[in-house]
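The instructor's notes for this session suggest beginning with a concrete chain rather than abstract definitions. Hand out the sequence below and ask the class to guess, before any prediction is shown, which regions might be ordered.
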Amino acid sequence: MSTHGCFTIIINEQKNRVLLVKRKDFPVWDLPGGRLEVGESFIDCVIRETIEETGYIVDTYKKIGEYHRPQFSDIQHVYLGKIIGGQEIKDGDETDKIKWFKFNALPLLMVPHRRMQIKDYVLGKYNTVRTINDSVVLLMFIKIIRKR
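After discussion, reveal the predicted structure:
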């Protein structure tokens, strides 16, 4: 059985920056999001996870894509979201930092494949379905990060 994760691409008002969160469990930047809970819809998961990790309330209005990772039996659902309320948290249970990044200046240490998902948004690709074949190098990177 596959696990499902739901993530949000949140763009600033000028549409030139994306909001990322630096995780506490692994020292990498990520889109706000996380695992789908039993009985929860993808949209409800996106809204809940975004509030938990950023403090912002979002309205999701487009699905960027569905990214299948067969080596992990995982499917990532990525949505475009707009901030409609809330207030940025300074220090959360899962979040170390929150920061806006220019599309051409994303941080070096990001969760694998987030660049591709952000690029799909930038290129105007919606409802994309992709299968991601994780390379041996990527799998080694993930193991190293998990040990920290």
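Then share the key points. The mean pLDDT is 90. Residues 9 and 80 are 5 Å apart (CA to CA).
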